[in-house]
Amino acid sequence: MDIVIIGLLLGGTYALMAVGLQLQYGVARIMNLANGELLIAGAFGAFWLYAGTKASPLLALLFVVPLAFALNWAIYRVLILPLVRRAKSQGKLEVDSILATFGLSFIFIGIMVTFFGAQYTDYSYLSEPIFIFGERYGLNRVVAFLASAVLCAALYLWLHKTRTGLALRAISVNPSAAGLVSINVARASALAFALGGAVTAAGGVLLSMYLTFDASYGVVFTLKALIIVILGGVGDIRGTIVAAFILGLAETAVATLIDPGLTLAAAYVLFMVVLLVRPEGLFGRRTA
Amino acid sequence: MLDVATGEALSAASVSKQFGGLVAVDKMTFTLREKEVLGLIGPNGSGKTTMMNLISGALKPSSGEIRLYGEAINGIGASRVANKGVARTFQLVRMLPAMSVLENVASGGVFGHARRWGRELDDYAHALLRRVGLPNAGNAPISSLTYIDQKRVELARALASDPRVLLLDEWLAGLNPTELKIGIKLIEQLRAEGCTIIIVEHVMHAIRSLCDRCIVMNSGAKIAEGTPAEVLADHGVIRAYLGDENA
Amino acid sequence: MSASEKLPAAGAWLGITLGERRALVASVIIFIAAGFVPLIFGGYVLQVTISIVMYAAFATSWLLFSGPTNYIALSTAAFFGIGMYVTAAGIDLLPYPVLIVASGVAGAAMAAIVGLATLRVSGVYFVIFTLGLAELIRQFMTWGQHVFGTMSGLYVTIDRSEPMYYWQLLLLTAVIYLVGWRIGRSRLGFALRIIGNDEVVAVHCGINTARAKLVLFIISSTFASIIGAVVAPRWGYVEPGVAFNPYLSFQVVIMALLGGTHRLWGPVLGVIPFVLLWELISIEVPSQTTLLLGVCFLLIVYVIPNGFTGLVEDALRRGTSADGTAPGAAQRIFDPLRNLLQRGKNRNA
């Protein structure tokens, strides 16, 4: 039973970083391999605040989120837009953006190592236990989950109830058609990219409350976020959230029942199942 | 397997294709005889290109069967359909941009129904270029060709595999009057040589002069079949194209 | 058509053209010349050249698959590790030549599994899958070693001199080069070029695109595993964290892209400067190697998308004047060389 609870708690927190990537890949159509590093940057932000002032990481959200938004907006305008303009096909753009964001991820790692060092980092915040159904769980996990749930719900509502949100959803379905109904696709894509980065960094802040991380750990998160997005279906946030829970459960099950060192293997098994059985993901649209 | 009794090159039996709730092709049934030129016409959105895609294997039918000389080819995948002898041109010309004209033509002749290589392939590709009217273009880069010439290259590529059935998907689209004459003459030549062709077209005088038989589609279903003259005078067909007042 | 426009090569299905024969002779000469290096240099210089030859083998075999298909394979480290491990595990059980073959077979088997799962869908999924592959296998190995109680590392003790490693790797690079050249002239190579141009056309030409990509991926990965088998004794001690280092994959990709992916000799042009630069950075500012990797990637994407070979070919093209009458600077350098290498005027008509 506690596998289920922990799995759900973990999955809920993974949801944020996956939704962030969903916005960047599903809407802005950029495969951002630096996604994991943004998450770590958020984690370091929270750590820095806590180590310095013992303030709650939730407060770190107040400065991490806008900073991440601004940073990703800049990345989109400076690095991504030239690629979009010069790409002759979606395939070429994907290759170019993968390489560019990949390079960016290394630069981020280098910068973070310089400022924070290469060692493992963690801090204990709210590590007192809370009792659910008679079992004890870390309060930090629960708080992270709740915060993540609130943010995801807010994002979902925003996407479905506002005009801008509608514009973003339109682009994820068909960018050229969206352009034809006078949605400014370039601007909306930049917004989606920036928002995605901000959401991912927020996820990093929350995850830092109970996970140990180091500057080069980002790639594992990138992989997990990608697998979640693919499992859920590119372009649909509901799928992403559901898939995040599935991964959280699978990972926790494997870690508890088989070995904690095989969490990536659990993710890959899911990945292979998706590729072989249903490449468009749970909620994705099958083409032809 | 040659269906000798009826000389049937291709047959479609109750073929349907659905995309979610949209029925793009609705229980299409027809046969194509050997050496026949069959016209597939209909208003925009009537499912003609979808039908071509179903025959060429690019799409899988939701139901129904397609047979090439008696052998079922629905659902086996486009590359295997090509191996069995179906070649096509595309509505929007698809060239191989980083390869020469000769290589573009040759690409059709290596892996398809006919498999050539070496000197044989080279001679054959050059012969095909002459046949479609581009005798000296072999070493030219694709980017230097005009639109009609690109279409010729695409036709040569399709012919390179010695196809048993040739699918021409709006091959005459986008041509000016002079080019159109040239294009129609080319297809007439193919017809005289005994090629079996399905041609999807909007250019009506081409349909009249080239096709032995015609099938009219509307909203995915067959609404008329017969010679071009019969079909184009049919009230149902006129209504489909032009609306009620003109029937 | 002006002379400054690049003419595509004659069909690959014909016999060797004069230009290709010249290139082949030049390559053979270069390989033989390279073989003399250990006789002249030793110590640190030899170490560096061994690195260069090893990465040349990696990068060229990477190119065999990722060049024509444009699928960026980040799996080199995974296959290298497999080759190392198979060799290390069997070192006391089987003769070394058999282990080299076994490593290749193991690599081929893993490539078949990965390829069957990922090559039927979009290239993006392939890249992601290979990104974590080395890490995934490392996790399995570590877990396996816990479960089965074996020691965390394996010793590979074969007595071999440094020059031997150099020559082995040089020979391997030559073999990879030959295989790549042969594929380029074969139906498979032609099929891959068509796929790289337009996959829809390729399918309608009768090409089984999934199978073509799979075969090539298996060939490319097998070589990476064989390199692992060759290099295992040099490292001496093999353990999961060391054998499955994802950074190897990233470096190989950078070197190949830096050199240029449109020519078989492209990667080598990227390997040499990169290895030298890496050595320099490792000595001067070792903590910034990761940053260097990142900067290189951005450089490749934004400044030199066609790599050094692209730059060289652009320069050669601009060396010819517009109407092709007065020879440009590049031609004035290369023409005498061309005349020297010419072996007669017969061209395959």
Q: How do the strands line up in the largest sheet of chain C?
A: 1-2
Low-pLDDT parts of chain C are: 1-9, 321-337, 340-349
- Indicate the proportion of strand residues of chain C: under 5%
Count of β-strands of chain B: 10
State the separation between the terminal residues of chain C, measured CA to CA: 21 Å
Please trace the helix and strand order of chain B, writing H or E for each element. Answer: EEEHEEHEHHHEHEHEEHH
The biggest sheet of chain C, with number of strands, parallel, antiparallel or mixed sense and barrel status, is:
2 strands, antiparallel
Order of helices and strands of chain C: HHHHHHEHHHHEHHHHHH
Can you put this structure into words, describing what you see?
The complex is a heterotrimer of chains A (288), B (247) and C (349). Chain A has 288 residues and is mostly helical. Chain A has helices spanning 2-27, 35-53, 57-86, 90-116, 139-161, 163-173, 175-180, 185-208, 218-232, 237-257, 263-277, and strands at residues 129-132, 135-138. In chain A, strand 1 and strand 2 (135-138) form a beta hairpin. The longest helix of chain A has 30 residues, at 57-86. The radius of gyration of chain A is 18 Å and the shape is globular. The model of chain A has no long low-confidence stretch (mean pLDDT 85). By secondary structure, chain C is mostly helical. Chain C has a two-stranded antiparallel ribbon. Chains in contact: A-C, B-C. Chain A binds chain C through residues 31, 33, 79, 82-83, 91, 94-96, 98-100, 102-111, 113-114, 216, 219-220, 222-223, 226-227, 230, 259, 261-262, 264-265, 268, 271-272, 275-276, 279, and chain C through 70, 72, 117-118, 120-121, 123-125, 127-129, 131-132, 135-136, 139-140, 142-143, 146-147, 246, 250, 257, 287-288, 290-291, 293-298, 300-302, 305.
In short:
The complex is a heterotrimer of chains A (288), B (247) and C (349). Chain A has 288 residues and is an all-alpha fold.
Keyphrases for this structure?
heterotrimer; A: 288 residues; mainly alpha; ABC transporter involved in vitamin B12 uptake, BtuC; two-stranded antiparallel sheet; 11 helices; globular; C: 349 residues; 16 helices; disordered C terminus
